[in-house]
Design brief:
Number of strands of chain A: 0
CATH superfamily of the largest domain in chain B: RNA polymerase sigma factor, region 2, helix turn helix motif
Shape of chain A: elongated
Number of strands of chain B: 0
Largest sheet of chain B: none
CATH class of the largest domain in chain B: Mainly Alpha
Distance between the termini of chain A: 80 Å
Oligomer: heterodimer
Distance between the termini of chain B: 66 Å
Radius of gyration of chain A: 24 Å
Strand content of chain B: under 5%
Helix content of chain B: 55-70%
CATH architecture of the largest domain in chain B: Orthogonal Bundle
Number of domains of chain B: 2
CATH topology of the largest domain in chain B: Rna Polymerase Sigma Factor, Chain: A
Chain lengths: 101, 227
């Protein structure tokens, strides 16, 4: 029995391979798969720690992107958009006045 | 000029609002300023447009920059968006939120600019960042639990900066989808419509972008004991 088969329990923990788990993970998380496939996902994940870790890291990636993606939400540094750049403000006001003249 | 327009505050004295953390205090302040802007624009007061610009130019610029990755392009997109908002203000629904309406307009302006400026020869290959598997479907690399919690990671300024830098490294096709869904928080159908692609295609790109970032984060932030 290979190292991974050992980690996966019987090596045939479901009809899905680890590749398929990774490939269809978004569908699993969004409950966008057939009930039978969702059940096979659960079976596989219950017996395959590496895939469980992959799923957890995927969720944490989404969370990290959500919480770090907006530089202006950084509380420890001054938000990059304060104050609004005056030259840009003036350019927009000039463009609006030109358009309405 | 109408009475409502004469109630406008000096635009230069406006506080920063817009896409700030949604505390009850911020929400109330935003609503007050938004009401002033909307009533002023409806009354035809030019100062209302200046107040709109001064209030929202900063956060809109940040949104455009996330999509365009270039400050000059982002500034142009914001200018287009605010002029478009001014010209199309009659389309603003009374029950809508001004920040949300402007957000959609600047996203659209940035995406149009992205399409116009897209280089056909730009590498869009993300395969090298995706997980690898053996022929029998087993992974080439056994995934390990991450040793740092998300709460710990986000407290470090250098980690937050690294996360944004790694997002910027994604090929544009994938980065755009990720930014729209996971940062700008558009839903699948709305993001797909703005990009002119099917929801199924959008989901494929989003998944690959997340998988690529997962690998990048794990490797470059040294998140496993193996790293």
């Amino acid at each position: 029995m290979s190292d991974h088969e050992h980690r996966c329990g019987e090596g045939k923990s479901s009809h899905l391979t680890c590749r398929e788990i990774a490939e269809f993970l978004l569908g699993y998380l969004e409950r966008d798969l057939d009930e039978q496939v969702l059940a096979e996902f659960d079976t596989h994940l219950g017996h395959c720690p590496p895939c469980g870790h992959y799923l957890e890291g995927y969720r944490e990636t989404v969370e990290l992107v959500r919480r770090c993606g907006r530089a202006e939400c950084d509380t420890s540094s001054k938000p990059s958009w304060q104050p609004p750049p005056e030259d840009l403000v003036q350019a927009i006001l000039r463009a609006k006045n030109s358009a309405t003249e | 000029m109408s009475d409502s327009a004469t109630q406008l505050p000096d635009p230069r004295g406006s506080s920063e609002v817009g896409f700030v953390a949604d505390t009850p205090e911020n929400s109330a302040a935003n609503l007050d300023i938004d009401t002033t802007i909307v009533e002023g624009l409806r009354a035809g007061d030019d100062r209302a447009f200046e107040l709109l610009v001064r209030t929202y130019v900063g956060p809109l610029r940040a949104v455009a920059l996330r999509l365009l990755q270039n400050q000059a392009d982002a500034d142009d997109a914001v200018q287009e968006a605010l002029l478009s908002a001014y010209r199309g203000f009659a389309n603003f629904r009374a029950d809508a939120r001004l920040a949300t309406w402007l957000h959609r307009i600047v996203v659209n302006a940035a995406l149009q600019r992205l399409r116009r400026g897209r280089r056909q020869d730009e590498a869009q290959d993300i395969d090298g960042l995706l997980p690898r598997f053996q022929a029998n479907g087993y992974p080439e690399h056994f995934h390990q639990p991450w040793v740092s919690s998300i709460d710990d990671l986000v407290t470090r300024a250098e980690t937050r900066e690294s996360v944004r830098e790694m997002i910027a490294r994604l090929p544009e096709t994938y980065r755009t989808v990720l930014v729209l869904r996971d940062i700008e928080e558009l839903d699948t159908s709305e993001a797909a419509e703005l990009l002119g692609i099917s929801p199924a295609t959008l989901k494929v790109r989003l998944h690959r972008a997340r998988q690529a970032l997962r690998n990048l984060f794990e490797r470059e932030l040294e998140l496993t004991r193996e790293a």
